[in-house]
Amino acid sequence: MTQVDSNNKDEMSMKELGKHRLVASKLVGIAVLLAGLLLAARLCLGAPENASQNPNIFKPLSTPADSIFHLSLFVLGITGSIFVVVFSLLVYSIAKYRRRAGDEDREPPQVYGSNQVELAWTVIPVLIVLVLFLATARVIHSIQDAPEPRGAIDVTAIGHQFWWEFRYPQLGIVTANELHVPVSTISRPTLTFLTLLSADTDHSFWVPRLAGKTDLIPNHPNSMWIDPRETGLYLGQCAQYCGVEHAKMLLRVYVDSPDQFEKWVHAQQAAPVNDASVQEGRRIFESTGCLNCHTVNETVANGRFGPDLTHLMSRDTLASGLVPNSPANLRQWIQDPDSIKPSSLMPAMKLADGDLDHLVAYLESLR
Amino acid sequence: MSAITNPLSETSAAWKLPYRGKVGMACLIFAESAIFTIFVVAYLFYIGKSLSGPSPKEVLTVPVFITICLLSSSITIHLAVRALRNAKTRLFGIWWFLTLALGTIFLAGTGREWHKLIYQDGLTISTNLFGTTYYSLVGLHASHVTVGLIIIAIVMAFTSLGRVTPKYSERLEVFSLYWHFVDVVWVVVFTVVYVVGR
Amino acid sequence: MASDSIAMNPTDVSAKSITEKLHEWVVTVDHKRLGVMYILYALVFLVIAGTEAMIIRIQLMRPHNDFVSPQVFNRMFTMHGTTMIFFVVMPVLFGFANYLVPLMIGARDMAFPRLNAFSFWLMAFGGILLYFSFIGGNGLYGAGNAPDVGWWAYAPLTAKAFSPGHSSDFWTLALLVSGFGSVGTAINIIATIISMRCPGMTLSRMPLFAWLNLVMAGMVFLVIGPLTAAQLMLCVDRYLGGHFFDTQAGGSAVLWMHFFWIFGHPEVYVLVIPAFAFLSEIIPVFSRKPIFGYPVMVGATVCIGFVSMSVWAHHMFTIGMNSYANSFFAITSMVVGVPTGIKIFNWLGTMWGGRISFNTPMLFCIGFLFQFLIAGLTGIMLAVAPFNWQLSGSYFVVAHFHYVIVGGIMHALFGAFYYWYPKITGRMFNETLGKLHFWLFLIGFHLCFDLMHIPGLLGMPRRIYTYEPGRGWETLNLLVTIGAFVQGIAVLVFVANLIISYFKGAKAGNDPWDAWTLEWSVGSPPPEYNFASIPTVASRRPLWDLKHPEDPDSRYE
Fold first, then answer.
1. What is the pLDDT of residues A112-148, one digit of tens each?
2. What is the CATH number of the domain that holds C248?
3. I need a labelling partner for B175 at 20 to 30 A (CA). Which of C31, C69, C133, C257 fits?
4. Chains contacting C with at least 3 CB pairs below 8 Å?
5. CB atoms within 10 A of CB A53
6. Is there a domain that residue C91 lies in?
7. pTM higher than 0.80
8. B144 contacts: CB under 8 Å, gap ≥ 6
9. Is C176 on the interface with B (CB under 8 A)?
10. Same domain? A164 vs A249
11. Has residue C84 been placed in a domain?
């Protein structure tokens, strides 16, 4: 009949050995799987360096991320249980109903189906889906339909290729790449509501410890909110492919204490520093291509294509979170941006060394 | 052994399955409907959303005459196929020619309308959202009419050479399903563009 | 009977020259040869797209790696996804359908043989057009080249302003052309199944393989239509100055997303339903029992076909739809899991009480069951919209869909290859190499895709050519890369097996697996005319009836 069968005794003992090997390898497989799961759990909940800053959806520090986290535990519980049940049934059926020696000429009972069994395994999943859906709908509404309370901070985030523009309309602030928000405590709840716009392609704002991601789509304003309950720096990055340097459109959210936030706001609202010792640099800035893309308040530069530089030195990093904001890096960014962020839309300015020194000195004065 | 014969009484009864040409054409119509649906959805979505430029109310006139022509061509093609099935080849030729003529009038009328829109009203496919969606939807339909007319013309040529005989009536009936589909699409496009969208 | 076949017997000393033989293949309209051509075409592109994946994985194995530039990386993930879906999985599934459907329903060929050939060549040229972009895409300022907009090609990234040159045009036109081919093949499958079944084979006696391909073909129409429409609109935008997706003129980027995913989601069911078809044929034979619950299997598949048309925006949970829309798509996405889960239970029920033998085809099917279970469960997680707000656009999603496509569909495909290889070539494959392929691939698969879920949970987005160190992503990415390599080696073992067995394998005979459907009643390989005389059937398992005349299925159905 089939090629698989054989009546040879040696074959049979080989088969016994093969069966044992099969069972053993299955047990090994299960062990590996469990080990992997434990490793995964440790990696998710354990502590790599800079743990406090690193993204991790299982370590929420803001209400939207919290709601998602609790819902996800519920979902993982249900799916985990389903997995255990079905996995066990599969393993059992393979082990118990495998072909054994002496089976060659007999076919098992030809069972075509069973109405009761099939009904049961239709009804139970439908009930599970119902429960899951109710839990899901509740969280969807609690996050999306939350009304904006008074005293909330309004931020407009505008996605660009490949940087983030942040405007605070009520406070009259324009900055880039580093978002400062006040911490929200029980005694002093302060939500930050973000309106999300885009100047070019689609982007997505994702800081996992604060909230789920929401996209920035041109001609389609979106909104989201956060209420971080611990101060610190939170990392994230653009999560919707927006072009060649999508990978390097990083996000830094600074959650400040009320005092820190107030200090930051005042510094941002202050008039730009007009240091006489860097007039040469300012002249270069205002007479070369810089002013086509950048704005510095109270100068003739009011370009909107690139980040606002009025308080450039208040930022920790350059090029949307890629390199620390140091004179050397600033110099390199102006002269050869492709070495930091290849094909970003910042052109290499190709200035003479002397001009570049003056320009950097000027920009360094913009605190 | 490659044959399995298991004669049971049920199988000795006539085993008749649908004609594959009709099934194939039904599938093609189904697929084409999906394409047209998306263009119609886009048209409906963008009604009233143009930022500038001529609006439908300003420049569109309801094309009653060519619509009557196109829908009548459905009747003439049906009569043509019926005539061929009943072996009346000369009658078939007359109805078939009328179908060709009515379809051509429809296309010519669309061309005239587009000429006016482009040269008098300044509406092109790149003018605004209305222009883009209008020319795309009506143009997609017109391209299907064109393909149909080419096939009708080829059959007309064979008819005048006397090569079309009643044994081809089933195939021409399958083609007529396509032509009816084109007409039904026009009813939808007409409603969406000239009734709803204005 | 085997000696009647023209095509595949390698030991025949043929008087034909190489050019004559090549010519025969190029002009063929025989469904079996076209099926083989589809499958070989897909295998070639599998290796190419697999290489693209390797390039991606090498680049990501370390943070700040510079194995390839960002431009090349972005082309790699775009081409990898586009190739795998349109020029590997779809052709290979169409190939198997083409080969097997007429044989299984007792027909001599497909309903429209010339359309069949035309459809194959359209698909083939589409693939060549896509790859021509590597050398031919040098548009404005050399900004052409292979497409780099991702396989979903979101607007407005595909607008001329953000994708100058012709790379996006190659993407659009190649898929447009091959889409017409897909529609042609789908028309053929449906017309063949409806109009060319042998006497006695009512729809309820058809093999499940035919049923599931019927549903798949019906879905192809609803799937390719929206994609074609959206791509025509994109062409209007890019070439004629149209504004369908031009946000500066009031157009909507979200509209592209809707149209694309109305294609994109049911498309993955188009890909997985034929995989279900393979399982529904292989598992019964190696469990020695009929499929458990045939009518419900058909019903569940039709149900999946309908419900899957209503779930598309679960790919768009993050774009800012209102809470009612999000809730709607969440529930439909969960509901579609019910008929899908039912099928897993039905396969389990088939194995239950059987006598399972672990030949290579069955091993792959068993792998499918475990892995598709997990993939389905991560899919349920993704259907929970708020959870999706964290998981979408991250490596969790990449891991999920590779679990479905590689852990599920590819495993079923490997099973199908091993199961029908004897029928198509007339030779048995090497069982040892087959088992080596299975275990190697299993280890590589789990190393790669189990771990891949974790960086997603730790905030790693997808489509990034590099990443920052110190976020806990490095080790995981390295291990994922190693797993990818192991899978690559396994695939090479597979290809070697296919080739070696073709020349050295034992002769297969008509029915090496003791199976029950009509294709096992003819020679291996089948003669060009398939059946000397068209068979008449009285049950779902005509060969069972013949082998067990004392207890035929026709008594119970």
1. 999 999 999 999 999 999 999 999 999 999 999 999 8
2. 1.20.210.10
3. C31
4. A, B
5. 16
6. yes
7. yes
8. B32, B182, B185
9. no
10. yes
11. yes
